[in-house]
């Protein structure tokens, strides 16, 4: 039942058991699209819903529902697709008082229909946030058709490309002028991104969505710009063998396959079987044919079985503190609390994963990334890896001439002059119109004995530290 599962996820979210997205991904529901829409809408407008519920006295009449279930039902009956299933009778008993309450607030806020009432409350909520203004980034997947053909289909579908001077310094950087350009777009207009090839940008309220046929056919992929930078930083050559260490749901893997032009081989690992099944469908939809997907913990991989691997993409499990949509529902008191114990455990896991990646004998390039803003998961992990990799790897100054507004944080001269933490990049909404991401790229040092490094003892040390807490 969708309502019961939606209620469970909302409670789990309040109890800080995960983000909405991760909880939905872990759900065994076969109606995840409906589930996602219902939860997102209900939580976005819960202040209005609570007012309607209180004025209608619905919970006084139907005490068994509880606040979460009442919110879900009231959203669906007044603003959604209508209530179905076993709760229909409870809603029917209160339908008149609910509609009267809704009309009361329409008059109070001087709007003529329910949609406009939602808009008023969305604008008035104090937690109106970055995610509602973030552009829609869309990647052109060329594993089925050529870019020109896809753009022609897009233009034939009544969308228009807006040209601008990419050589203009104001557009080369994520400056206010560039943001103004994006915000000036009409709902059917798009521009090409100023950094990522094959990425196009629509305004945040553009009507294009995943139900559009070019998405369904796998020609377009909605993905945040910050996520695109991870496979771009890895940049493997054609025919390379690559490991994607934490791959589901597979969007970055699809970009990686585009870079490889479906050649070579990508060994993709994820520990969650539900996410792996989702990823299988995602890869098939986008015509990815060079991926060997396994439901397996990357830390359990035996390095001698992957002696042809030269590149590793490691987008590790993290707190997700950089995701703008984590602040979407007004529960910023839940989202902004920094859980030091959880961060410490995540940092320990991230250290293990990065050192394990560095132990593959023929790997020459590794990209480590998180969607976190916390130094514990970012610079701290990089600093630790550099200290414990026996000088096998060094940081690469990624996007050196193109990314001057968001670099790794250096705490002292050693960080800057020896570790070069400023070679890493950070993204955020304020500077880049994206989610908050951290990306570090490691490259094999010259004249290194390939057999001189073992992570076994170092991983055991980290494990001992975890057990002591």
Which helices and strands appear, and what pairs or packs with what?
Blueprint: H1 2-14, H2 20-26, H3 32-44, H4 46-56, H5 58-61, H6 66-78, H7 88-108, H8 114-124, E1 136-140, H9 147-156, E2 160-161, H10 169-172, H11 176-183, E3 189-192, E4 199-202, H12 213-216, E5 220-222, H13 225-234, E6 241-244, H14 251-260, E7 265-270, H15 273-285, E8 291-295, E9 309-315, H16 332-335, H17 340-358, E10 365-370, H18 379-388, E11 393-395, H19 413-419, E12 425-427, H20 429-432, E13 437-444, H21 456-468
Report strand %. Answer: 5-15%
> Mean of residue pLDDT?
86
- Please bin the fraction of helical residues: 40-55%
Low-pLDDT stretches: 123-131, 327-336, 459-469
- Give the tally of β-strands: 13
Instruction: Write down the overall geometry.
Output: globular
CA radius of gyration is: 24 Å
- Terminal Cα span: 40 Å
Structural class: alpha/beta
Number of helices: 21
Largest sheet: 8 strands, mixed
